[in-house]
Amino acid sequence: MLHAVAALWLAAAPGRAPAPGAWRTNGPAYPLVEAIALVPGQETVVYAAARDTESSTSGLFRSDDGGLSWTLLAQAPFQASVRRLAIDPTGTQRMLALTTSGGREYVYRSEDGGASWVQTRLFVSDQRATVFFDPVAADTAYLFGGGELKRSEAGGAWEEIGGGYSAWVSPEGALFLAEAIQTPCGLIFLCYGDKVFVSRTQGRTFDPLGTGTCLDPDSIVYAPSDPSVAYGTAAICLPLVKSTDGGALWKPVEVGELAGILGSKGRVAGIAVDPLDPASIFLAVVFSDDPNGGLLLRSGDGGERWTRVPVPEPPTGPIAIGPSDRVLYLGTVQGVFRRPLGRTQTLPAR
């Protein structure tokens, strides 16, 4: 299981505070960041899962000052890696962590903000697996992996409630399930249309809605200022898709310029939406042939045009924005970097 450890405090460096808009990092102790989670209603509390690639050590860290200093909360088992984090909006001390070890996925649950953990589920490894909480129904969690959607209530057993290609939940508690249609094309599979279903009963019943574009699990991000707007990825078909009706119907975003930046090796690994503007989005991009070649991109018009945001270190995928303070948190190969959005500077994409 995840092992609670004695607090390891990484103090902020002394001296003057950086100018507004400057990138800053002070950890965590393990450099490669694999997940970031913000605590709803507590802007300065940030969790990060990070890994030391040299020692294959992974752990969960917490910051109480908006990423300026970090405490090591829990150590993952030897050679296990914490890949996903989820915090329950209906009770922020409840958390889920998804780890990978030896070709298997483990789900851990915490009731005390990450201080102690209990294993709740073991299943065959699935890199597309994800965990998330219902934002409306108290203590209701979902696990999607291996094409199956499962629900756990009040910490109970995981019950299968559906199957498909991806699943996610809206800020208003609508649970979506997408069933993909795939067809072989040589050595690969092409994905050409989801059937999207919605449940407003925590998965007890589903109603058909429309079609999507083979949406990737764990990629759907809603605009804080307008929950009818959401973005996601459909990596098999399209790097970026958008919904303007809360997640029922999905359409491709203009991808000509973005596709040119990504090439054949790049993919969108993280999405964040500015809390003040649903058309202002950030993408963390990684490249399969170059772990140090990640990019941070920004669009101010919903994805029509893109600029590159200079970053101190290459992104690894995790990205989040505080809904009130508008601080952007970016996971990189050398820790979590933070930057207020008030003075974000960008350079033209090439």
What's the helix and strand layout?
Elements: E1 3-4, E2 9-10, E3 32-39, E4 42-52, E5 57-63, E6 70-75, E7 81-87, E8 95-101, E9 104-110, E10 118-124, E11 130-133, E12 140-145, E13 148-153, E14 159-163, E15 166-169, E16 175-185, E17 188-199, E18 207-212, E19 221-223, E20 226-234, E21 238-243, E22 251-252, H1 256-262, E23 266-273, E24 281-287, E25 290-299, E26 307-308, E27 315-321, E28 327-332, E29 335-340, E30 347-348
Antiparallel strand pairs: 1-6, 2-6, 3-4, 4-5, 5-6, 7-8, 8-9, 9-10, 11-12, 12-13, 13-14, 15-16, 16-17, 17-18, 19-20, 20-21, 21-22, 23-24, 24-25, 25-26, 26-30, 27-28, 28-29
Protein described:
- By secondary structure, this protein is mostly beta strands.
- It is built from 1 helix and 30 strands.
- It has one helix at 256-262; strands at residues 3-4, 9-10, 32-39, 42-52, 57-63, 70-75, 81-87, 95-101, 104-110, 118-124, 130-133, 140-145, 148-153, 159-163, 166-169, 175-185, 188-199, 207-212, 221-223, 226-234, 238-243, 251-252, 266-273, 281-287, 290-299, 307-308, 315-321, 327-332, 335-340, 347-348.
- The strands form 7 sheets. Strands 1, 2, 3, 4, 5 and 6 form a 6-stranded antiparallel β-sheet that branches. A 5-stranded antiparallel β-sheet has the order 23-24-25-26-30, with no helix packed on it. It has a 4-stranded antiparallel β-sheet with strand order 7-8-9-10, with no helix packed on it.
- The relative contact order is 0.13.
